Amino acid sequence: MSTNKKRGSNHVFHHKTGKGKLAGALLAAVMSTTAFHGAFAADDTIKVGILHSLSGTMAISETTLKDVMLMLIDEQNKKGGLLGKKLEPVVVDPASDWPLFAEKARQLISQDHVAAVFGCWTSSSRKSVLPVFEELNSILFYPVQYEGEESSRNIFYTGAAPNQQAIPAVDYLMNTEA
């Protein structure tokens, strides 16, 4: 297994873990949503939505997330796709505009018929799309830590909540001799 160390960090990133999580996450989303049947395009692909700002103030942070998703989808397709079908990315630009995130999410689900969406980078964008995902019973994979106190069966919160970050840090500091 290939590993890389981040500079100044003891954390090790396992490349294969991220790829396996993508395939597993997509499989779970495809099999569990009502969008399942519409997600299969005519050419026997599974559509995957990418909802990250490619313009506006958040583009500097979110463009690389879009690029990573496209890379992971390409790598998964080289392995035969998912369920024997190729993954087809559908990229939209909500332009760092929180209400536009909701409109673009609705477009991805209702018009483009994606099986799942990977996106949003801020709490404001996530909160903007939450009612859309719940109304249309679709799945969003939210890639960063969040403030907690929110739970939805339609959002996979992949980052840590405050208690998952603060408590271990405080425990460490209290047990570390100065």
Estimate the mean pLDDT confidence. 79
The global form is globular
- What structural class do you assign from the helix and strand content? alpha/beta
Uncertain segments are 1-17, 31-37
> Quick one: biggest sheet?
5 strands, parallel
Q: In angstroms, what is the radius of gyration?
A: 17 Å
> How many extended strands?
7
Strand content: 15-25%
Strand order of the largest sheet: 4-3-5-6-7
Question: How many distinct helices?
Answer: 5
Order of helices and strands: EEHEHEHEHEEH
Distance between the termini: 37 Å
Helical residue percent? 40-55%
Walkthrough of the structure:
- The protein is built from 5 helices and 7 strands; from the N terminus they run ββαβαβαβαββα.
- The chain has 178 residues and is an alpha/beta fold.
- The chain has a 5-stranded parallel sheet, with helices on both faces. A two-stranded antiparallel ribbon has the order 1-2.
- β1 and β2 form a beta hairpin.
- It starts with a strand and ends with a helix.
- The N terminus is likely disordered.
How would you summarize what this structure contains?
This protein is of the alpha/beta class. It has helices spanning 15-32, 59-78, 98-111, 123-136, 162-175, and strands spanning 3-5, 12-14, 45-51, 86-92, 116-119, 140-142, 155-157.
Topology:
Elements: E1 3-5, E2 12-14, H1 15-32, E3 45-51, H2 59-78, E4 86-92, H3 98-111, E5 116-119, H4 123-136, E6 140-142, E7 155-157, H5 162-175
Helix pairs in contact: 3-4
